[in-house]
Design a protein that fits this description.
Alkaline Phosphatase, subunit A; four-stranded antiparallel sheet; about 15% strand; globular; alpha/beta
Length: about 475
């Protein structure tokens, strides 16, 4: 089979999915669907996001451009997006986002999609619905209270109890829309699906908490930990462990949904002509550097993500060389035999997928913007709102620089995978050479971002603002 035999591509992105949360990257994890997918796919061991959170990462994922490179805001309205390029080439396009307010038409993410639904404006207009949208942890308690009744009812009907009482993560909405698109689409098509279950607050269905927890009282304890965190209480070792369990349960929930989507491809007889890509848009911190979630930092727990590309007919491979998520658009275009725009920054990964060749040895650059405090709200969304931090990664080294303060850090990942020992403090001659080399890359990237026209911030409608508040962004 060659690339010309592939008619369709399904791109699955999972919000806040760190690499070590799934089986292919950590043997202690069990994610049956993604594990099986990786066994026949190309797995990129050193895949990195180009930002620490969704609005800084997705311009690369769907536009192969760095955030701020073309405008001063976080959208893609001046980019040749993947969906627009494919649509111009007569590829049917569908995009379904589980209510992430940053991935909406407000920032032009609908451009080029024949079918697009962000599920933001469909939360419901009642006071009850809007309250739940702002306070998803309340939904977790509702799930817990109703769980025994639902389990008995499901058992009597011969069904599983994996559906949440209230689908706040919009997983089933997205899954249903994607399934309908697949069933009705004529090839060739491109489908993008974005899951939010692994984003804070983690509210998986109770059955998935039971799957990853041996404690019979696990569900109650996990939700208690969630409540303590939401109230700003102290997060000790036990609470942190429980939050990790909730997160892993949410990963299992997404894994099951991906399995149902892959099943739809198979039942419609198009699985052998459809390439599937699974990627995280960024990672998640569990106090590796003092905080939870994904505040403005550039360490591996936030930047290293899974990237699995399954093209039917190719051999299973494991690629060590570093790659950035800006490689996704040119790779998809290449698979579908569509010419990529010259302004795309990433390089296609098809030589690695089809021949096992190493990707181009280009360091991956990532950015974030930090205010006076790491946890300050609102989290900075533009260069004018804080200090610019830029990181550079090759296969072994991570360099991080606060451009505005002139402070830098250097880490050797093979012996320090969690980046705890800063080698820039007393560098060897070789380390100093790397600092200078990476520093010049940072300087060039920062100059590119700051030389662009600065746009003023625009107003956000109430529906998007409500959803962003529910995700913890004020």
């Amino acid at each position: 089979m060659s690339v010309t035999d592939i008619s369709n591509v399904v791109l699955i992105t999972v919000d806040s999915l760190r690499a070590d949360a799934i089986g292919p990257y950590d043997e202690n994890r069990h994610t049956p669907v993604m594990d099986a997918l990786a066994e026949r796919a190309t797995v990129f061991d050193n895949a990195f996001a180009t930002g620490n959170w969704t609005p800084f990462s997705f311009p690369s994922i769907l536009g192969s451009r760095p955030v701020f490179a073309d405008t001063g805001h976080i959208g893609v309205d001046r980019s040749s997006t993947l969906s627009a390029v494919l649509s111009e080439a007569n590829v049917l396009t569908g995009g379904f986002n589980a209510a992430n307010g940053f991935l909406t038409s407000h920032w032009d993410y609908d451009a080029g999609f024949d079918e697009f639904e962000p599920f933001v404006a469909s939360m419901g207009s009642s006071i009850y619905s809007r309250y739940l949208a702002r306070h998803p942890t309340v939904e977790a308690w509702l799930q817990l209270v109703t769980s025994p009744v639902r389990r008995i009812s499901s058992w009597l009907r011969g069904e599983t109890d994996d559906r949440p009482f209230l689908d706040t993560s919009r997983m089933f909405d997205v899954e249903h829309a994607a399934t309908s698109f697949i069933e009705e689409a004529e090839t060739p098509f491109f489908l993008w699906v974005h899951y939010m279950d692994t984003h804070t607050p983690y509210v998986p269905a109770p059955r998935y908490i039971r799957d990853v927890s041996s404690d019979l009282l696990g569900t109650h304890r996990m939700l208690h930990a969630h409540t303590r965190t939401g109230l700003g209480r102290n997060v000790g070792k036990r609470t942190l462990r429980d939050l990790r369990t909730l997160y892993q349960a949410a990963v299992r929930q997404v894994d099951a949904s991906i399995g149902r989507l892959l099943g739809t491809l198979s039942s419609n007889g198009i699985d052998e002509e459809t390439a599937v890509i699974v990627a995280g848009d960024h990672g998640e911190e569990f106090q590796e550097h003092g905080h939870l979630a994904h505040y403005p930092k550039l360490y591996d727990e936030l930047i290293r993500i899974p990237l699995i590309i399954d093209v039917p007919g190719t051999n299973a491979r494991w690629i060590d060389r570093q790659v950035g998520l800006d490689a996704i658009p040119p790779t998809v275009a290449d698979i579908l035999n569509v010419e990529p725009p010259t302004e795309w920054q990433g390089d296609t990964l098809t030589p690695s997928i089809f021949e096992g060749d190493d990707p181009v040895d280009t360091p991956v650059v990532s950015v974030t913007v930090r205010g006076e405090e790491v946890t300050a709200q609102p989290i900075p969304r533009s260069l004018a709102e804080g200090d610019l931090l830029v990181s550079v990664r090759n296969q072994d080294w991570t360099y991080i620089e606060n451009v505005d303060e002139g402070r830098n850090e250097l880490y050797y990942r093979p012996s320090d995978p969690t980046q705890q020992e800063d080698l820039s403090i007393d560098p060897t001659t070789e380390e100093q050479r790397l600092i200078e080399q990476f520093g010049s890359i940072v300087e060039s990237h920062a100059s590119t971002l700051r030389n662009r026209e600065r746009d003023t911030a625009d107003d956000i409608n109430d529906e998007i603002e409500t959803r962003l508040e529910a995700l913890g962004y004020r």
